[in-house]
Amino acid sequence: MKKKNLIALTLFIGLIYLLHSTPHLAVRTYVFFTGYPVAAVTTNIIHDDYHNEVDKEKFAEWNAKAYTLTKPPIEKATQGELRNYLVKKRGFFHIVEFYGEG
Predict the structure, then answer these.
(1) pTM, 2 dp
(2) What spatial distance separates the first Cα and last Cα of the chain, rounded to whole Å?
(3) CA–CA distance, 82 with 45 (Å, rounded to integer)
(4) pLDDT tens-digit profile of 16-54?
(5) Terminus of the chain with fewer CB atoms < 10 Å: N or C?
(6) In whole angstroms, what separates CA 32 from the centre of its chain?
(7) Residues whose CB is less than 8 angstroms from the CB of residue 25 and which lie 6 or more positions away in sequence, other chains included
(8) Burial profile 83-101: b = 16 or more Cβ within 10 angstroms, e = fewer
(9) Tens of pLDDT along 74-101?
(10) Minimal CA–CA distance to 40: which of 23, 51, 28?
(11) How far apart are the C-alpha atoms of 86 and 3, rounded to whole Å?
């Protein structure tokens, strides 16, 4: 029984690592699990040149870059576009957070 649990845990950790191994996969995973699976699969992801330039020093300090969805999902409560995301790199792992509309 312990061997099965160890295998399951190893597979789960491997899947989490795989889904956060690149900035684009991490953004897609984040968008998927925040309730927008169609947008996560269908949108293109590009570098957010504006935020990457304006916040260059802050992003360098955080080891982060901003990305933009070309077809962003619309937030249900506010009808705002969920367009920009900040991706911070921690070792081999990418962590995503929403970075705002503008």
Answers:
(1) 0.84
(2) 51
(3) 12
(4) 877 788 999 999 999 999 999 999 999 999 999 999 999
(5) N
(6) 9
(7) 18, 19, 94
(8) bbbbbbeeeeebebeebee
(9) 988 888 899 999 999 998 899 999 997 6
(10) 28
(11) 38
What is the pLDDT at residue 40?
A: 93
**CA 38/CA 82 separation, integer angstroms:** 13
User: How far apart are the C-alpha atoms of 53 and 32, rounded to whole Å?
Assistant: 27
**Amino acid occupying residue 99:** Y
Measured in whole angstroms, the distance separating CA 31 from the mean position of its chain's CA atoms is: 7
User: Count of H helices and E strands in the chain?
Assistant: 5, 4
Contact 30, 16 (CB under 8 A): no
Q: Go through the chain and tell me how many residues it has.
A: 102
Q: Is 47 left (phi over 0), alpha (psi -120 to 50) or beta?
A: beta
Task: Mark out the alpha helices in 1-102 (DSSP H runs).
Answer: 2-19, 23-33, 37-42, 49-54, 56-62
CB atoms within 10 A of CB 62: 13
